[in-house]
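Researcher: We're reviewing a set of sequences before deciding which ones to prioritize for further study. For each one, I'd like a predicted 3D structure that I can look through quickly. This is Pectinesterase inhibitor domain-containing protein. If possible, include the structure in token form so it fits the rest of the review sheet.
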Amino acid sequence: MVFKNYTFFSYVFFATTVILLTGHAHGAGLCDNSPNKQVCDSIVYNRTIPRDAVVAACHKLVSETKVATGVAHEQPNSTEIYNCIKKFDESIVFAKDALNSLNQGQPLSSNAYLLAARANYKLCDDGFQNSGKTNPIVKSTKLLQDMASVGAYLSTLVK
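Model: Here's the predicted structure for Pectinesterase inhibitor domain-containing protein, in token form for your review sheet.
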């Protein structure tokens, strides 16, 4: 098919290019220096405002922690699993406190709460390591640590 009016197609090409480049640039920047870019990208998605990204990170952290708690409950009873569940429950409180701090305009406090949540997830791993046992939920704790790190990082971008 021969097109007689190339101007129309030039406009369509130009408009498509602008839309694609603008859409790509929207999320650019928030995850560039993140401790885990892949996790950050999955949380930030197309958000451009750091505060919105932190809110999303906190909500996702609470949700994923509840999932991990369920997985931990399915494991054979042990002191280590019990301690992990306890630390997960504390981390949910920390994530909610991070949201409250953010809503009160205190992103640094939000950062501290998310770092405390990350430390709790690490304590779960450390409990297994110290007892010489293999952590059956290590993938969950690793993801939660990464998510908390990303949330803490994003909170440093909030002005």
